[in-house]
């Protein structure tokens, strides 16, 4: 069965071009020109992946609002911001709202398709049967790499796909520093330092919401990040 991609874009020419390109790759593409129509559709049925522009018609930040709504409906559904707005503020805002990726419209089509395929490969792991070899435990942390679930002190931590693999890269070698490049490689991302920092901060906040004293993710300035052993 074809993967269903929701494309939320208010520019008709861009929308039609990318719909055709994605359709050629075998995807079932559902297009929406504004937040309202997309939101109504998502309430009825969720896509397998959503590509969202930030500015939607008269709503300058309509894409941000839609991302929050969609993330509320599904903590793990892959979400990509695809926008002409190329600045640190919008990138950080988008990732804080739960997007897995933030791409600008000057990206090449092969690059976009590669990012979509990488997200789909990671979601396929959710369908694999539970295997004890896929369980990572470190103190109060437990991660299931097949189902991409995380618990801290036996409480679930809702991470996006990208956040999951970044945390996994750090936690599976407790005490060892992981560079930003290593985090990109293991989470299959190609992003800048600001984007990685935003993801790490978001992961920390999610743990801190469950445990005020959480301090296991350590920043090693000039080098990267590490999971502190107990």
TrEMBL record:
GO terms for cellular component: cytosol; protein-DNA complex. One of its GO terms (biological process) is regulation of DNA-templated transcription. Residues 133-229 form the OmpR/PhoB-type domain. The modification 4-aspartylphosphate is found at residue 53. The keyword Repeat does not apply. InterPro entries: CheY-like_superfamily (IPR011006), OmpR/PhoB-type_DNA-bd (IPR001867), Response_regulator (IPR022305), Sig_transdc_resp-reg_C-effctor (IPR016032), Sig_transdc_resp-reg_receiver (IPR001789), WalR-like (IPR039420), WH-like_DNA-bd_sf (IPR036388). Residues 4-120 form the Response regulatory domain. Residues 133-229 bind DNA. PANTHER family: DNA-BINDING DUAL MASTER TRANSCRIPTIONAL REGULATOR RPAA, REGULATOR OF RPOS. This is DNA-binding response regulator. It comes from Planctobacterium marinum.
